[in-house]
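Raw record, unedited: Outer membrane protein assembly factor BamA
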Amino acid sequence: MAGVMDDTRNTDAVTTWMSRAAYIPFIILAVLCWVPIVNAEETDFSTTQLGEPLAAVRVHGNVTIPSSEIMQHIESRPGRPVTPSKVTADVKALHATRWFASVSPRVEFSEAGPVLTFNVVEKPILRRVAYIGNDKISTKELTALTGLRPGHAYDVLINREAVRRIKQLYLEKGFAFAEVALEKGDAISDREAIFRIKEGPKVRVTKVRINGNKIASDARLKTKLQTEVAWFGMFRGQYDPSTIPNDVAVLTRYYHDLGFFDVRIDQQVTFSDDKSSVTIDYNINEGTRYKIRSIELVGNRVVGQEELLLEENQKSGKYFLRRLVNEDLEGMREVYGNLGRLYATVEAVPRFIDEPGLIDLVYRIDEDKPYIVRNIYVDIDGDHPHTKANVARNSMVLSPGDYADPNLIRRSKSRLEGIPAFAAGTGGGVKIDIRRVEEEGGNPSVFRGQSNDPGYVGEVDLQVYGNTPSGYRQQNPFVQSEADQAEKTQNGFRSWNPFLNSHGQGSSKQPATQQTPGRAAVMPTGAASATRFPAAANGNQLETMQAGTRFRPENPFVGNTAQPQLAGSHYQRKPNPFATEPESVTVAQNNAQPYVPGVNRKERPVQTVPVNSGPVVQTSSKSNGEAPGRVAFAAAEPQVSTADASYSGSEVPAQTVQQTGALGPFAEPNPLFGGTAQGDPFSDIPEPGFVDLLVNAREAQTGRLMFGAAVNSNSGVLGNIVLEEQNFDIFRWPTSPSDLWNGHAFRGGGQRFRLEAVPGQDVSRYIISWSDPFFLDTDFSFGLSGFYFRRFYDYWDERRGGGRINLGRQISPYLSVGLISRIEEVNVSNPAVPTPQDLTDVLGSNFLFTVGGMVRYDTRDSAINPTEGYLAELTYTQGLTEYSYPRVDAELTNYYTVWSRPDGSGKHVLGMRGQLGYTGDDTPIFERYFAGGFQTFRGFDFRGVGPRENGVTIGGQFLALGTLEYTVPLLANDSVSGVAFTDFGTVEEDVSLDNFRVSVGGGIRIRVPALGPVPLAFDFAYPIVKAPFDEKQIFSFYVGIQR
């Protein structure tokens, strides 16, 4: 019909849509059924921990790089389980090759098992690398620097980084005007990397001038500079502009340390016309040097200002010197360290005032609270560690139960670094981490040194498992082994710590199977309320003690003040490998007065305060029934009891702290002071915290084969060959051939074994020796040695063979004692003619047996180049059997720093030495005193001073020698020094000064670090007073080289 439209098209569309919609439920159902199938076949690696091994590892998407090449960088292998961490490491390894733009791992499941697939997208390939214009630096060196090679992935960013590296290398080598451009390789479409280099001249620093300096010389300030001047304008001294700002900063700091806070330093760089040399000028305006108007301490409440500044170095009215301020800071930290305030901080802040040239010096102090060492854990690290943990523990000067003194912790670390068995150096082999013990409801804070390190989580388990060897030494006077406990209780020998428990007399004996001694630690009474903590040494016993017991401080850092007993705290122990548990403990309280804890640099009197006695609870499976005594501080004391003692082997009953109130003097106020206007003087004393010391030591290479040579005016030319093992263990015999090949046999005990051969022109010596600095894990050192010695003297030849036995002990850091026994066979031959009777008497073979003792006190700051301190040594020797004679030797050496530069360098040192010796009438000629030579009496020949008979030196029975020596540095870096000296004294047949000699002279000392710590010595001396028969020697020297 005209004008009428048939719209059947829309109707068909609707019908079609409706017919298709009927299939939607089936499609949804199919999708829902398919999804679990997909999940069953493919799994995201990041959320899956497969328990079955991989069936295959594949690489997908690589086009130009072979799969075999890629698989070399993948650690995951068929037959091994897959973990997210392993896959993540593989992805990082593939990215590190720089071959791929992306790497995507996935895990699929097949009938054979899981399949790990890495989908990779390759980067474009670099076809060519070229360096144009490089004449001074080889292409090989540049290739190693950039890492670019044909066939590697092409990356524009890597090419630009290569430009920066090449330019930096040229700058470091002195090419200050070098230019590097990227001709090709800066566009995404490139496939080549071409570097165009313009090297320019090599610029050397020919002169450095310092202008305006008055307080210090040019030479001294130049030793602080990083910029180096070329030698003769041709060697070294490359110009590096980056060193100039560092030089300015260093010089500015140097002046600030001397009190020049307004100093201004400008630099000026002048190039030569051809740009090959440069002159650098540092123009200094020193400004005003500030003096100290007053010194103020802020924040000190526990320790008074008089004690903190007891040895004040930086005084008011004097110029500010950072060196002296640092010494005062160290002294204050030492005081707080002695009190166990591990995290106490002291900082010096200059406060400027309106008056020019004056400042107030303010010491800001945060005293924190005391900390006590709870546990010391040791971990020996290394590729194949074999060193015993006791090697480290023996050198610790801290024990569980001691104050956590940072000075002693640093000293322990220094001693550990000095053990040859452990590596030392920056980032080296010894670390001591300090971890606060976990408090109620919190986590332990971990510290390294004295700085909070919240990111530290610990890389190794530092706890040592297993029982300590039976001979483990008892260094801590507050803790005893089971074997020693009863005897020391009866003798009354015990030191005291105010935070350790006191004990009454009771049974502490164990069955025979429990007699293994170990290091013990008594838990302090000042633990946080309701806090649980393991014993400082698991299985350690508490000592029993009677009231009125004597005390003997065995620790040199603990004072010998009257020491009371505190009430013990009840706790239970957890297993610890350091010791075994006693069968039972009896705890009693003693009458005592309060004690101020800590040991300061100088003893101060203890102020005692009378207080009421607190409650005492005495519980034990075997009590002696003694009545409890009085407690030092009136406060509710924790009750003490022990857990069931019925156990065997390494099973140790657990121990728990059960609080019955506040802890000792650290909580409830003292009723004697609570109502006064001043309050309780003990109310501000914080509860002590506890820390664990985590010692990690990495083994070093301890076997050495050394060759050396020396020449001196006494012995001529000497060779030196040494085979040494510094981590020897004479008790670790091999149990199988593998122990010999893997290095476990005879190693790991911290002992020292040495074979030495010293062939020489006039003297030869061959020695085999063994020593143990902590014999059987005690404080005693023990050594054995055998030797053969040959010497051609002017008037006879001498051969000696025999051995020595040494036993010693380090009483304190300065005091040591020792016993020495010597057995020798001495053969004297080829005598001079005419032969004195004393020499005739000893011709042929002679048997020598001596025993003796030695006491040594050494406070020198250095054993080789001392500048202050003194050495005192007294030795007594008694000859026995064939030759019976006494011998007494005494030596005193003292060093004083007379003058030094304001920065503490350039010390003028006055050294004084005196020697006295006497030996008995039956002393053979080869054991008498002789003098002369660079070691004893300069200006005289070796053994040229002493009595003579028929022109032959026969030695004396009395020796008196002295030396005065003044040392002055000749160079700004103190590497060369001049000495002026006088030697005086005599050697006589009896006690007299009849033939007193005097010599005067001078010399130089040259310190060459590459040749060892001992300086080269060259001396000229002339005797101004001598005996007619003495033999002179004007020049003496010593040169030694060792590798």
